Amino acid sequence: MYRYDEFDYQIVNERVAQFRGQVARRLSGELTEDEFKPLRLMNGVYLQLHAYMLRVAIPYGTLSSKQLRMLAHIGRKYDRGYGHFTTRQNLQYNWPALKDMPDLLHDLATVEMHAIQTSGNCIRNVTSDQYAGAAKDEIEDPRIVSEIIRQWSTFHPEFSFLPRKFKIAVSGTPDDRAAIRVHDIGIQIVRDGKGAIGYEIYVGGGLGRTPMIGKKIADFVPKEDLLAYLEAIMRVYNMYGRRDNIYKARIKILVHEIGAEEMKRQVDAEFAEIRKTGALHLPAEEVARIQAYFAPPAYETLPDESTELNKAVLADRDFANWVKSNVAAHKVPGYAIVNISLKPIGGTPGDCSSDQMDAVADIAEKYSFDELRVTHEQNLTLADVRKKDLPAVHAALKAAGLATANINLITDQIACPGLDYCALANARSIPLAQQISERFSDLDRQHDIGELKINTSGCINACGHHHVGHIGILGVDKKGVEYYQVTLGGAADEKTAIGDIVGPAFTEEQIVDAIETIVTTYLSLRQPGERFIDTYRRTGIDPFKESLYATH
Amino acid sequence: MAQHSRKGAQFQALTANRLADGIVVYLTSDNRWSESLQDADVAEGKEAGEALLARAQPTVDDNIVVEPYLFEIAREDGGIRAASVRETIRQAGPTVRLDLGKQAELPGVHR
């Protein structure tokens, strides 16, 4: 993985020292809250419902074991012994004190980590595919371009005060696991007819109160032009993005209002202008330097079949179930990708205790080249595990309470922190996810239902990605009481779709039964081989409406 | 954002977050900040609410608390109950992780 050079160290350490001074001046009263608030936000510090919250950046979700151990240490020393992995592949601490923040950030900086670009109207932490480097059909490791964008965008003077926040996601495979079409810019790595690698560019996707699917404005941007092309998009947005209305300030509104064609025309014109005046070309040697950090690890030459694995599958039903749902194919024979579910039955999606972080760090160090990934679906991934080590990895995860076998099943839900933690939320998300998880805890039933993604957000800002859940749940507030609105048919993959609202909202008492009704309706309608989303796409919303509301 | 207080609320209390650690606090009748809602001063009617809010300003100016606001409460069995789910969670901690924090210290608060 990428390691800091002297410049990275310098900017992060200087930032910690700068923020230490700012916190001291705020506590002494030299800075007012109005003066301080934008400064703390630029360092990932929010004030939430109960306390401050710190959002730590995990660039494109990649972590070393050492870094995860530091996150565990920080959870113990400055928080309450746990952290929360988010849909942005980041980690949030729910209870740190402002007065401790400089020391916390100092500790974080010792392992090449920080909270820069986790808030504010800048280009945020770049997100990517958790299977990067290991996926079978990968055209190029998306972490290379993600890292290049990180370096280019950090403290970029022209793009530090954009109309609104800006999120970029990168996918290196045709199967999209990074939800690139619901980002401000989505980058799909592609190959042209001559075999050259370049980038397909989507722009203007996003969730929140106005969900939009990104529009493709370039089929193939050559490698060396990527930053110049991104610069062109950012300039068009910086010039014409609305600053008069926060709800209309994201690039998706601009693209929606002027249309994808016009957006493409303006970006192309700006790109041509940039080229005339001396475009920022990506120097090949710099790309090679960064690429070297993501060179494949020292894989052994192994047979693809593992007798140890086959024996264990036959001998242990729990293990077999876990392999079935949590283990994915790897590009190298004899290796596998392991997904660690952070969705125990009845637990909080994305929460991980400091002890569990230490356990995962040890497992990653021993079995997956000392590295792991955070997924936007709030799970963890060990990308490079030998198949013959899978029984040992499963046993170690089980000992840490991390062997839940439910990846992509109905209990593998996304949920935002909701009203239990968040100052913006209108309703709770986590207890709902917990109740649904408990209702569908039977593993045989989960496998029978098959792939089904339930995403819950506690407010319209959609941190829980409800619009793109196969079943989406949005918490709303009606006179101080929580209600839940349901959408169906959303998807965040290469067939991205925004879900349709099924009808009037449900009360807290009704919502879990309503989910069950939706599931049983699907089971009664499905044809052989169909997943929930396939059935929904075939039948449309009417049968679901019928079964949910006809008897009410 | 959820509404903090209903227009025409009869009873209101005042809450804020402590600057140094962000912890939720309530203004008491002798102008201290308490971590317990049960210690909160209660204002009846709009004018008394505004007066309560005004009393917070010196401690905001002294950098003790941030973001003070009024919210609706109800008097119940000699105690004070927040009217909304939001303020109930704010005073009693999250409704999850009942092994930690205020939600553990106030047994039965979230049932």
Question: What do these coordinates show?
Answer:
The complex is a heterodimer of chains A (552) and B (111). With 552 residues, chain A is of the alpha+beta class. Helix content of chain A is 38%, strand content 17%. In chain A, strand 14 and strand 15 (380-386) form a beta hairpin. Chain B is globular, with a radius of gyration of 14 Å. Chain B has one domain. In chain B, strands 1, 2, 3, 4, 5 and 6 form a six-stranded antiparallel sheet that branches. Classes of the chains: A alpha+beta (552), B alpha+beta (111). At the A-B interface, helix 1 and helix 14 of A face helix 2 of B.
Secondary structure: elements and pairs:
The complex is a heterodimer of chains A (552) and B (111).
Chain A: H1 6-28, H2 33-41, E1 45-47, E2 52-56, E3 62-64, H3 65-78, E4 82-85, E5 91-93, H4 101-109, E6 127-128, H5 142-153, E7 168-171, E8 185-191, E9 197-203, E10 215-222, H6 226-240, H7 251-258, H8 260-276, H9 284-293, H10 307-315, H11 317-326, E11 327-329, E12 335-340, E13 351-353, H12 354-367, E14 371-374, E15 380-386, H13 390-399, E16 414-415, H14 430-439, H15 443-449, E17 454-457, E18 471-478, E19 481-488, E20 500-501, E21 506-507, H16 508-525, H17 532-539, H18 542-549
Parallel strand pairs in A: 6-7, 7-8, 16-17, 17-18
Antiparallel strand pairs in A: 1-2, 2-5, 3-14, 4-5, 4-13, 8-9, 9-10, 11-12, 12-15, 14-15, 18-19, 19-20, 19-21
Chain B: E1 11-18, E2 24-27, E3 33-34, E4 43-44, H1 46-61, E5 65-76, E6 79-82, H2 85-92, H3 101-105
Antiparallel strand pairs in B: 1-2, 1-4, 1-5, 2-3, 5-6
**CATH C-level category of the largest domain in chain A:** Alpha Beta
Number of strands of chain B: 6
Percent in helix of chain B: 25-40%
**Average pLDDT across residues of chain A?**
97
User: Approximately what portion of the residues of chain B adopt beta-strand conformation?
Assistant: 25-35%
Number of helices of chain A: 18
